[in-house]
């Protein structure tokens, strides 16, 4: 009798439109069981076989329960994708005049605190998986950790914080074989993709990185239709600018 090997599990935290939808489609079509988390979806397994979990990622204490539910229903996730975000814009010429600590605490919980807890529980799970299993954590980033945008002051602070977290995890867990990525979609000239962001391009890149055994550049700058493009020299030069992008 042939041994049936269970499909690996991907946990998507922040299952919104665009990137979230594309991740569900791509990974489901490529032999993954998908668990998707958002505030608005109805909890349970949908007609496509996706395990939907309702949770508010503005509350970091909700994250451990998410991992417990996924493991109880299926197994330890081999891939964890943190795609949730909360952004409050400020006045571009006077961002401090509109700053609200209450609003920032909420945004920070979504962008950093819950992401950090998700990373923690991903690593705990990775340690319990067989050594031969490929294990990957993704954080949906953007160019804000290497560019100025005063109206997105606090959002940029949070993106920079998690970029640092990803970098440190790459260094710390390299020998264990765990992979970590901050995905950052750009236009071909290196500008941020913003409203032209392609969920399909990001999902395609993440799937390829999951299947690649070796750690690739942790700050994974990608361009739709091209894949990874190295913008390091351009980004270093931007640090000398006093103009926002």
UniProtKB/TrEMBL annotation:
GO terms for molecular function: oxidoreductase activity. InterPro entries: NAD(P)-bd_dom_sf, SDR_fam. It comes from the Eukaryota. Keywords: Oxidoreductase. PANTHER family: 5-KETO-D-GLUCONATE 5-REDUCTASE, SHORT-CHAIN DEHYDROGENASE. Belongs to the short-chain dehydrogenases/reductases (SDR) family. This is Short-chain dehydrogenase. It comes from Cladophialophora psammophila CBS 110553.
